[in-house]
Amino acid sequence: MASAEGQQHPLGIYYKIWILLFVLSAFSYAVDYFDVQGGMRWTLVIIFMFLKAGFIVAIFMHAVWERMALVLTILGPPVVLLLLIGFMAVEGQYTEETRFVYRGHDRDAVALGPSDIHGDEHGAEEAH
Amino acid sequence: MSEATANEVVAHDGVTGLVDDWSADKQAYHVPWGKAMMWIFLVSDTFIFSCFLVGYLNVRVTTTEPWPPQSEIFALSFGGDPIPLILIAIMTFVLITSSGTMALAVNFGYRKDKMKTFWLICATAAFGATFVGMQAFEWTKLIVDEGVRPWGNPFGAPQFGSVFFMVTGFHGLHVSAGVIYLLWVAFRVKRGYYDEKGFEIVEIAGLYWHFVDLVWVFIFAFFYLL
User: Fold this and answer.
1) 3-state DSSP helix/strand/coil percent for chain B, to nearest 5?
2) How far apart are CA B28 and CA B13, in angstroms?
């Protein structure tokens, strides 16, 4: 029990989690570096994100060693956010669709990157 | 449990403990009050950042203009070809490093090793300041070189700028406040202010710092990677 003397744990666990967080961050960066796209990108990024968040809250913030009364106070309320996220995603898709259908917005518009804009000094004339 | 005081009549764990704690006459949380209050503050802060991120989700879904390519915009070149998202990756590693030093500081605090605690908190604050410095560099690059503004940018959806400045700005504000808070705690530890009171304050400051790192995990994933 940790309550009397505060949260005192062996140092080893902190080093292990620390290294794990580095590895997980490197993995999520690798997802971008190797240009993984589509569903795989979402899956990997979100898995690594939740693993990192979980280890930070559980070990670094000591949530696994706290009593359930405190843990539920911390983790319970944010669960309602899932509902908000769900509602906003559905509502957002509806709004976007109405903009395509009734406002005539272009479905196939493509974003520009810095290279498209700064590359102009040389290539703008031939492009237009 | 021979020398148990009123606060320490804590026998059960798990669900039985939960019922015991919530049906207790005097207090529900068997932690120092400062820690309970820090947790409650962090839960409320979670809702603030969640509102920002859900707002981001909503504008990103609703806008019919294409979202700017973050990977390319946040690329940085060290002489050769630009490396995608490299600055953000370094910032992530700096923040995780600072989280590790903070976790060690909490541990040495409870061991009453004041000098190690002091220097580890100072290292944490230094990494935090480095993070804010890199963020300032990133903002400057985006505003001056790329022409990104809260109301528009040359790449695509204008909401990109408003979300970027609001979310990373609010997070940077948290990091800056954290650096000041940590230094304040560090010098009080060194002066021996907590010798009598106990070193829970280091853990409480640590909770705040880990939370700042936690928020960055979500910003890194949702804003920069997805």
Assistant:
1) 70, 0, 25
2) 13
Taking CB atoms and an 8 Å cutoff, what residues of chain A touch B31? 3, 66, 70
ipTM for this prediction: 0.88
Q: Does residue B131 sit within a domain?
A: yes
> What is the domain count for chain A?
2
Global pTM reads: 0.89
Where in the sequence is the domain holding A82, given as residue range(s)? 68-105
Which CATH number do you get for residue B96?
A: 1.20.120.80
- Residue at A28: amino acid letter: S
Q: Distance (Å, rounded) from C-alpha A69 to C-alpha B18?
A: 5
Give tens-digit pLDDT for B105-122: 999 999 989 999 999 999
Distance from CA of A4 to the nearest CA of B (A): 8
Residue A41 sits in the same domain as residue A98: no
Phi, psi angles (nearest 5°) of residue B49: -65, -35
Same domain, A90 and A48: no
Check if the beta carbon of residue B74 is closer than 8 Å to that of residue B84.
yes
